[in-house]
Amino acid sequence: MSARLPVVPVVVALALCATATVAHATTFHVVAGGSGADCTQAAPCATVEDALTAHRVAPAADDVIDVGPGIFEGFAADDTADGGLTIQGTLSGSTHQTTLRALGDGIFHEGLTAIIGVCGSVGATLRDVDVDTQGADLGVSAIGVDGDSRLINVHAENQAGSTAGSVVNSCKGSPHIDRSVVVAGDGDTGVMVHQRLAVRNSTITSTDSPAILQNAPGLRSSLRLVVLRSTISSGASSTATILTTGPTTVDSSLVTGGGVAMVMFVGGTTWTIRNSTLDAGEPGYDPGTPAIGFFLVGSPANVAIESSILVDGMQVFQGMGTITCRYSDVPTLDPVVDWTTDCDTGAGTTNTSSSAAGLFVGGAPYSWQLAPGSPAIDAGRPGTLPATFSAFDLNGTKRIQTGASATCPYGPRVDMGAYEAPAVGCIPTRTTLPTVIAPVAPQVGNHWAAGHGTWTPKPASYTYAWVRCDADGASGCVDIGGATRPAYRAVAADVGHTLRVRVVAHTPAGDSAPATSDASVAVVARR
Fold first, then answer.
1. According to the model, what pLDDT value does residue 118 have?
2. What is the arrangement of strands in the sheet containing 447-451, beginning at the earlier edge strand?
């Protein structure tokens, strides 16, 4: 965030358990320089602490605290009234305008900038903010995400020289990290997992420690780690990028770096790796840095690898179990004592063993996109994907693409690895509608943003047209002259009307059919 943003002392902690029931949810507003006590839109308050106080008078599970642009620092005690609460920052397009920042030694003994949830209990949501520890004690971490809490579109990072051990720390429960970025510097793990965690559409990186560390063998019966359509990387050479002690699923993801890409540390558990790319060490084949490794204690393990690419080998340090590979590109695996392996390659098998140079685009920086003619194209699992598999790759491209074979040559079956090859000759097909993102104050003079929706294959560009409709959002709709950018500033003629946005997606093959968003809330006059 820019240093010019105002710095305001506020609370950034949430605690979550069962809440009292009220008739309706309320939105509380926080802005720099606010002076209101009830945190209304007309009279916003200055701190999140004030907003929490107002919320707790008659809390509802769907209450929202809207935090305006600026850097808000401080801490406060948690409270059992905050279950289901959402704290959301301000966006300008896709850019965060709100930063939550640690103060002193963080929250309580936890040493955290923000606590989202209660360990082993229900959760809340934190979204559309940056969270950092600049200027706080070096032992303070950015976020504790506990219970069934969610981080959505959050960027979390500790300050340089941090001794906190992790950027994000998750306790008991089933928290989610979605569309977020976690950056760990020297000495810090990206995400420390103590029970369950789901990571979706996110990027987690570390410098010299695991990007994800699940380390609670005493809770093994309740552990679970799911990594879906995410990029996980580590610059460490002496540890794993992902180190787990419980059941783990990696789907349509890219795991790179580390001395080993993934390590299973405790037996009696199951790994499922599907439609993913694992490449340890330096990009491409790097001898001595296995893609997956096993250092098992206790019961046997079961590992199932499907439609994936393991650029480097597999190494068993100790333990026993079963490894099965199907429709995957894997290096030759030598027989291992106490392990049953079914990962043969070549004729009579469903697996291949290819050089990294033939698989990927490569280059500087290295790309794990599939090269034209790659043996991984259309070499994954045949037939319809099971419902438990991701239908989209790491780029959001549909795994099995529709279209006539003459115009869409890739698509009869999934490709191996994290990415589908480009669907040459395919006109984009909409998978979700465009959206209109209203400002916190939907009034004249403020900017509205367009979300282009999702398409397959991934378009090269988009065309936008803003539309003004009657208050019902369906009648009297007319294009707004000259409004063809992803952002639109409301004018006096919009008062009492709703806004929609129409999007056309483009690829070299042609233009999509237009897709129009649902209607926004009505525009109001400037107050």
1. 64
2. 435-437, 447-451, 487-489
